[in-house]
Amino acid sequence: MFETLSQQPPDKIIELMKLYADDPRAEKIDLGVGVYKNAEGVTPVMRAIKAAEKRLWEEQTTKSYVGLTGDPAFNDAMIDLVLGDALSRPHVASAATPGGTGAVRQAFELARMANPGLRVFVSDPTWPNHLSILKHLGIETVPYRYFDDATCTVDSEGMLADLERARPGDIVLLHGCCHNPTGANPGAAAWRDIVSVLRTTGATPMIDLAYQGFGDGLAADAGPTRLIASSLPETLIAVSCSKNFGVYRERTGALMAAGQDTDRVAAVQDNLAYLNRQNYSFPPDHGARAVTMVLTDPELRADWEAELEEMRTGMLHLREALAAELRARAGSDRFAFLAEHRGMFSRLGATPEQVQRLREDHGVYMVGDSRMNIAGLNEATVPILAEAIVRAGV
Ligand code: LMR
């Protein structure tokens, strides 16, 4: 039967990881996959996670199954981290998932169970895997305008106009903070306008929250999610712990469904358990347990927040340094947006040819749409990148 299978088109981000690994040049710069790196180019195990894992190793007496939606303490701690006081616990269903991707996948499946004819509105551009999963599930996508190429900011007017076309039963997929791939995010007024459009259309928001703490801080980055979930009847939230806890390979995430009607929320909770059972039975536990310990132990939590804040401010500093270098070398302010963007990524606005030139002539690896992972830089490589960008004619 395997003869009926053909090769799959490569995932652009994963393909770039391999291209970079195969490049023998010592001076190569990796701005590809969205993985945080420190100044030494290392993706560290965060201190608090290391301490929690040590304690787990010492204290854990069994690896027996937990429950279909994971450890209740993990769900409680994650709801508190993401939603704060925005909604009380009976208003939120939650299940642990294998990473943020698992949460995204389960959210789409849940939405399709609720409405087989749904459409999912996606920002243009969005994380390529959103589109890939939706295509795999046979769900129709409707792109909405998002990024203004000329200013490298959010095209709020275009976005709101396109979202007005959504209907009840549709999903509107939003990036809660640190938009991937552009780095451009709606301001407070635009978020309020988005809530109004969602309310008028009756479409259901789905928020992908993969970078809480990487933008303007833990509470600020959750602000739009809290606003939406507390203002509208129903909200899906796909949360990743990969980046802000640095537990990438442990596959740690959660899918939450917030709703004003607690009976419906209870029914959703059942459906989350059902969906987990169909797809993988029990979600991974190790990363979730370490995250729970970090979130609930005051000392570990303080240390985690401090390290996360160091990471966030480090990326902000790199953004400012790159914008300043480019200002000096290009003799213009046209790259000032780099310091305004938030999170790991910025879309530089280079053509595919310029991206290729950056890779081939300068050993600079960024995704084909010119998405750069700012955390791939350090103080020494910022001027080298700025020079390469100018030389590549961007
Ligand atoms: C990215 O966008 O680079 C990350 O979210 C990693 C991934 O899985 O694509």
From TrEMBL:
GO molecular function: identical protein binding; L-aspartate:2-oxoglutarate aminotransferase activity; L-tyrosine-2-oxoglutarate transaminase activity; pyridoxal phosphate binding
Superkingdom per UniProt: Bacteria
Cofactor annotation: pyridoxal 5'-phosphate
Key word DNA-binding present: no
Pfam families for this protein: Aminotran_1_2
GO cellular component: cytosol
Keyword Metal-binding: no
Annotated TM spans: none
GO biological process per UniProt: L-phenylalanine biosynthetic process from chorismate via phenylpyruvate
Protein keywords: Aminotransferase, Pyridoxal phosphate, Transferase
Domain Aminotransferase class I/classII large: 27-389
NCBIfam families registered for this protein in UniProt: PRK09257.1
Quaternary structure (record): Homodimer.
Family: Belongs to the class-I pyridoxal-phosphate-dependent aminotransferase family.
Descriptive protein name: Aspartate/tyrosine/aromatic aminotransferase
Species: Rhodosalinus sediminis
